[in-house]
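Slide 14.
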Amino acid sequence: MRVLPCGDGALLVELGGLPEVWALAAAVRGAALPGVVDVVPAARTVLVVAVPGTDLDRLRGALLDLPVDAAAEAEQEPVQIPVVYDGPDLDEVGRLTGLGADGVVSAHTAMPWRVGFGGFAPGFAYLTGGDERLRVARRDEPRTAVPAGSVGLAGEFSGVYPRTSPGGWQLIGRTGVTLWDAGRDPPALLQPGAAVTFVRVEPGAADPGRDRATTRVPAHAEPGGRCLEVVATAGRALVQDLGRPGHAAAGVGCSGAADRAALRLANRMLANPEDTAAIEVTWGGLTLRGGPLLRAPLTVALTGAPTTAEVDGAPVGHHALLTLRAGQELRIGPPSTGVRSYVGVRGGIAVPAVLGSRSTDTLSGLGPAALRAGDVLPVGPEPNTVPHVDVAPVATPPGGVLTLRAVRGPRLDRLVDAAALVRTEWTVSDRSDRIGIRLTGARLERTDSDELPSEGLVPGAVQVPPGGEPVLFLADAPVTGGYPVVAVLLRADVDRAAQARPGQRVRLRLVDSPWRRA
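Slide 15: predicted structure.
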């Protein structure tokens, strides 16, 4: 067992293979180690994620001392999946393997697979242990949209896409089995270690897989008329809180506000609990109206990227409290620096929670859909505590060169010239979103071009794909990935990275790891 730092809030444990991964993941969950909020098993590693401030050196020692029984595996119910084998890549897989289409189907259904680990999307499972002859490479050009229910092959794995999403696996069939249901316990049908058998059925015997889409927010106010009406959206506006940690093993990332510090500030100003849901506004352009039946004004706070804002034409301050009465309109303009502004309201945005969070996860599709004109946002009751400040004198996102602090990633040794990572002045690409930022400016050469066995990821991870241009992951990062992570931002600097604008220059500065390496 080797334990590597993964930023200032996680540890990556290297192991021999899946049996050891399953055993350690089960042992960590069972031990309830102080500070641990998520455990992410992958092909040969377990990522252990902790709350801010956790003593990682002590956690490392606890992991090394943890009694692990590799022979003890949790009993899982076997799963049978009916498949119509008519996928668009079936003939090509038959050619690549030399088995022919019918031979591929026979090999895929002849022996049970096992759930190795989750990742990529809620309910997606990497299945291992199938026929060795079925090993095929991913497609050279990934598809932009793979239909929900598609059954595919990639390398040693098989898998089923739970929802429509991009993907590069070779598609050999389709199923109507629902792999993910947030109302089910557990939500994911395929649990690590479970045996999975594929059964061939004729067309019509398996309906197309059901997609899991984001849900519209309720179009009604809470009792007492406490609500906000969405009048107009020009940029993107999403409901966000501090996310849903603890579900990464099922393919669900934490998500939550991209700039968590800005959300926390809004809630502190409003005397809300720090994880209360607010609105994240990208590039401004949002107009909100106080509900027509409000019996008392709403108290609102604006934080994050500074914008020009006004209530019924009168300018209002940033990082400040304001009141919004029935019928009054709050207009939020584009930010002068930064990207994302936050609109908090006393009592919080009270849309229904999914897996304990009201956040919209743009990668997994969980949570409420992006806001649009006509939506009505219920506002919760005011907390018993009262605000103590009207204005918060905090710095706004910088507009010049942005220096981001990072620690060495677990795979920094995969770079031929590691110093190029910090020597280069990078530029934020316009191909950036809540999932991650693409950095341009140089191509980092890797010691090899092969994919790694999938490993857990955290927001702030800097990953280097074969093209050599780094990707810096943000709030909606995938839970696993197969490219080397060469650095991981400090958590505070992930918030700052979320405010970087396309075209803005960025430098990475490596700092000491927050733990002692024995």
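Speaker note: Helices lie at 18-31, 56-65, 90-97, 100-110, 260-270, 420-423, 491-497.
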